[in-house]
Design goal:
- Keywords: Coiled coil, Signal.
- The protein is an all-alpha fold.
- 97% of the residues lie in helices and 0% in strands.
- The protein has one helix and no strands.
- The longest helix has 74 residues.
Length: 76
């Protein structure tokens, strides 16, 4: 009788531990998915920032060219 009770308790403990491990595993997978999603968003945002920085540099060059042309026209 004690052996049956001990066996039942051991099996119940294993099942509970397995369930807890499965929940932990699922939580870890969700957390990893969230991290990957944030990494993708960060990469996309960095690409946008780089594109905007390039655009700003091109606009600055255009403004400089326009100012130089205006100065050349005024000095002539």
């Amino acid at each position: 009788m004690k052996i049956t009770l001990f066996t039942t308790a051991a099996l119940a403990s294993l099942l509970m531990a397995g369930s807890a491990f499965a929940m932990d595993s699922e939580a870890v997978e969700k957390h990893l998915e969230k991290i990957n999603q944030q990494a993708e968003e960060t990469a996309a945002n960095q690409s946008r920032v780089e594109a905007l920085e390039t655009q700003v540099q091109e606009l600055q060059e255009l403004i400089r060219m326009m100012l130089e042309e205006e100065e050349e026209g005024a000095s002539t």
